[in-house]
Amino acid sequence: MPILFSGQTHIGMKRKTNQDAIVMAPEHNLFVVADGMGGHNGGDVASQLAISSIPHFFKEQEQKITDAKSLCNMAWQYANLKIFEKGELDPALKGMGTTIVGLYFRGNTLFVSNIGDSRAYFFQKGKLFQLSKDHSLIQEKINMGMYTRQQGAQDPQKNVLIRTVGFEPSVAVDIFEFKVSRYDLFLICSDGLHGKVSEKDMVFLFEKYITDPTLVTAQTLEEINHELINLANRNGGQDNISVILCMTV
Predict the structure, then answer these.
(1) Are strands 98-106 and 30-36 parallel, antiparallel or unpaired?
(2) Residue bearing the bigger pLDDT, 148 or 88
(3) φ and ψ at 129, to 5 degrees?
(4) Domain count across the chain
(5) Phi, psi (5° rounding) for residue 124?
(6) Which of 4-8, 132-136, 185-189, 193-197 bottoms out in mean pLDDT, i.e. has the lowest?
(7) DSSP result, 110-179
(8) In the predicted model, is pLDDT for residue 141 greater than 70?
(9) Is 12 helix (H, G, I), strand (E, B) or coil?
(10) How far apart are CA 156 and CA 80, in angstroms?
(11) Is 243 exposed, middle or buried (0-12, 13-18, 19+ CB in 10 A)?
């Protein structure tokens, strides 16, 4: 199934470096966002290692590993080990880490792979659905019924992660499988976007630019990305901001 896509990453308004990284590998129908751990050594190194390691693994193994879930899991594990080993060899980078969220399309099936709090969303008929699950302390509290997501947004520990890439030699990967149809729209992003742009505002922009899905082009998606990043910056832009949009056509 053909895929239109567009991606952008921005340093934001407050940070001195961009520790986010993205990769779009249409030859594999693979799209990835990584958010290096701010406040940890080498967050930018970790995210760059992630977005270079995963496509490399796909290039070497996609034809050999027929099970798509296994392929995604092994690619994420490969990136995790590369980051961990780099940190072990260089004391200045020890403890670095990153989140990773990715979309992998195979036929009419989408595989969403996630570690951390970067997110994947699906937009359809005026509604936005979060496809990934945050690996954060705040999400654990929400799961336990301590409070709602709206209340959790005010928690001072909202940025504390309980699972990331590169801290240990192996890591558990969440992989979700979805059937896709023509004109489905998917978004993956770092928390610099979803932490500053509400789902309501995302829906508003999608509906503003996509009045007829059959007329959408890659330029349309580029314009939406630009607006999303500008809105995140207008809302404070305290973090790096990364977003990739994909539409099946």
Answers:
(1) antiparallel
(2) 88
(3) -120, 130
(4) 1
(5) -155, 130
(6) 132-136
(7) EEEEEESS-EEEEEETTEEEE-S---BHHHHHHHTTSS-HHHHTT-TTTT-BS--BSSSS----EEEEEE
(8) no
(9) coil
(10) 28
(11) buried
How would residue 153 be classed by pLDDT, with cut points 50, 70 and 90? low
Q: How far apart are the first and last CA of the chain?
A: 7
Q: How far apart are CA 10 and CA 61, in angstroms?
A: 31
Q: What's this model's pTM, rounded to 2 decimal places? A: 0.93
Question: Tokens representing 149?
Answer: 């997501």
Q: To 5 degrees, how large is the angle CA 129–CA 130–CA 136?
A: 160
Token digits of residue 33: 């966002």
CA gap 13, 86 in Å, rounded: 30
pLDDT on residue 1: 86
Confidence band of 136 (pLDDT split at 50, 70, 90): confident
Angle at 85 between CA 96 and CA 104, to 5 degrees: 75
Q: Rounded mean pLDDT of 116-133? A: 96
Residues contacting 169, CB < 8 A, separation 6+:
80, 81, 84
Sheet of strand 174-179, all strands in order from the earlier edge strand to the far edge: 20-25, 30-36, 98-106, 109-115, 174-179
Identify the domain containing residue 99 by its residue range.
Answer: 3-248
Burial class (CB in 10 A: 0-12, 13-18, 19+), 195: buried
CATH of the domain at 87: 3.60.40.10
Sheet of strand 127-130: strand arrangement: 3-10, 241-248, 185-189, 119-124, 127-130
User: For residue 225, what are the CA distances in angstroms to 6, 197, 242?
Assistant: 8, 12, 9
